[in-house]
Amino acid sequence: MFQMGSRACMDVHIWGAIEQKQSAIQMEDDKFPSKLVPITYKKPDWRTEEELKQLRNAMSSVQSYRRYSNNLQLLLAKVIRHQRFGRRRVVIKKGHIGNSFYFIYSGVVAVTKDEEGSSAFVDKEPTLIRRGAGFGEVSLLKGVKRNATIVCMEETELLVVDKEDFFAKKLDEVLKKEFEYRFSFYRSLDLLSSWSFQMIESMADHSKTEEFHYGRVIVKDTSDMANIIFMAKGRCDLLHIVDLTTCHSYKKWISQQTEFLKCDKCQFAPAAGTAAGTWSPSPAPNTEWKLGALNRSTCNRLSMTRFPRQAAPLLTPYGEIPKDLGAAVCIKVDSIHQGEIFGLNQYLGPDYLNDKRSMILVSQGAEILRVKRENFDALVDQPTLAKLKKLQNSYPR
Ligand SMILES: Nc1ncnc2c1ncn2[C@@H]1O[C@@H]2COP(=O)(O)O[C@H]2[C@H]1O
C-alpha cells in the first residue's frame, strides 16, 4: 500500500536514538564568517590569493560546492557574492527572467507556484531547499523564465553567481550533469516507461536530489502526504510511533519494575497531581520510587525512552532523564529501497482502504527525489495509472 513491492516486517526502534542523531546534524548550521562578507563585494581581480583561500575554506562547508573540482572551486571563490535575506523575502519570482544562480550557505528556502511565495507558510509539506544545495539553474540552462518562486523560510544566507560567471566558469556543465542524473533516474523507472522526453524533463526540472544522513526524518507524518518520494540511492524505513503512555501493558510492566527499585542511584518520584491521561503509575503520588537492581542495559533503555511531560525527574546513574519526554517506541513497518517509490497510495485503491495511521519516514542513509503530487498528477498518463492499479491487486501479500 505504501510503496511498490511492499515488504512488511516488524522491528522495534527506540525513538530517542533518532532524535539524538537529528540534533547532531542540526548543529552544523553555521553562518558565513562576517569578516569575509566584504571580500565578496570586491571585483574578482581585486580579491587576493589569501582572500580566495579564505573564501574557499568557508564555502567548503557547502555540500554542493565541495563536489566541484578544485579548479572550479577556486574560480567560483573569485566571483561569488554574499547576500542575506530575512524570513518571507522572495529571492526568485516565478515567470521572471533568470539572472543568477544561488548556493544556500545557511537557512532554508521554499519552492512555490505563487509569485508571492506566501503559500509556503500555509502548505503543510512545502518543498524546501536547505543549506548546501543550489537553485535557480533551470532558467539559466534553458534560457526560459523562472519555473517557480523561491521564498526564505527563515533568515538565509546565499552565495550568488551571476549569469555571465555561471557560463564563463562552466558551472552550467556541472549543473547539466546533475539534471541528466535526475533525468536518467526517472527514465530508468518501469512505472514511467510510457512517459515522453518532455514529461520526464518536467519531472527533472521540478525536483532536486536530497541527501539524508542516517537517522534523519524525511517525512514527519505520512498520513496525508503532498509529495511523492523517489528513492534514488540507499534506504529509508517507515516507522509507526506507538505512544506507550496510553498502553496498559506498558504501565503494568513499569509497575512490575517497582519490585526491583531498591538502589539509591536510581530514583523516581512521581509528581503530585500528575495530569489525567499522562503516565501515572502506582503507587500513589508522593511515594518515593526506587529504580534499584536495574542492570546497565535496562537503565540505558529507559534513558532512551521518552517520558511524559508531567512526570517527575527520573534519576539514573547517567543523569536525569529530561522531564518533557514522552514514552514511545517506533515499530518498523517497511523499508523503501533504491528505485522504489513512496507516497503513491492514493492511486492504489479507494480512499477508505488507505491506511491513515500516522507514520514517519526515516533515512538509513538515502538520496531521494521529491516531487509535488500535483506536479505528478498533472503529468500522469493512462498506462501509468493502469500499472498503479495492478500494484493495488498485489497488496496485501
Ligand atoms: N520541486 C523543486 N524542488 C527543488 N527545486 C526546485 C523545484 N522546482 C523548481 N526548483 C528550483 O527553483 C528554481 C526557480 O528558478 P529556475 O527555474 O531558474 O530554477 C528552479 C530550480 O532551481
TrEMBL record:
Which PROSITE patterns does this entry report, sorted A to Z?
CNMP_BINDING_3 (PS50042)
Q: Which CDD domains match?
A: CAP_ED
Cyclic nucleotide-binding domain residues are 64-166
Q: One of this protein's Pfam families, by short name?
A: cNMP_binding
Q: Which PANTHER family match?
A: CYCLIC NUCLEOTIDE-BINDING DOMAIN CONTAINING PROTEIN, CYCLIC NUCLEOTIDE-BINDING DOMAIN-CONTAINING PROTEIN 2
By what name is this protein known?
Cyclic nucleotide-binding domain-containing protein 2
Q: From which source organism is this entry?
A: Huso huso (Beluga)
